[in-house]
Specification:
alpha+beta; 5-stranded mixed beta sheet
Length: about 120
């Protein structure tokens, strides 16, 4: 299996309105490091998994509508509990749709919410 990994980040605000989240029930900010791994059992005709420049731009396109936003007010997310796990899958699904015409392998999205905690979603 071949893979490449790219990295970016987003700054968001949100609240997680359930008692299980303790103080995070209140509005708070988060800076997520976003790592995306593109994997494929084969290289394409150019001997690459995916063009790194294209992958970076696709990720920026997906993250841009989230960056510096209050996710509680985001049109697609305002009725969701935007946990780190949920956001990893949301970013994965948006990215997969963005690159579907040029990449058919697996995509894994990892969100680093701090230096000691990460959440990951790997698609089929």
């Amino acid at each position: 299996m071949y893979s490449i990994r790219i990295r970016d980040h987003i700054l968001i605000a949100h609240s997680l309105n359930r008692p299980v989240f303790g103080p995070a029930q209140n509005m708070h900010g988060a800076t997520y490091v976003v790592d995306v791994t593109f994997s494929s059992p084969n290289l394409d005709e150019n001997n690459i998994v995916i063009d790194i420049g294209y992958a970076h731009q696709a990720l920026k396109d997906v993250l841009n509508p989230l960056n510096y936003q209050n996710l509680d007010n985001h049109p697609e997310l305002k009725n969701e509990l935007t946990t780190t796990e949920f956001l990893a899958k949301y970013i994965h699904d948006q990215l997969k749709a963005h690159v579907k015409h040029t990449f058919s392998g697996k995509i894994a999205v990892t969100l680093g919410e701090s230096h000691v905690a990460w959440a990951n979603y790997t698609g089929e």
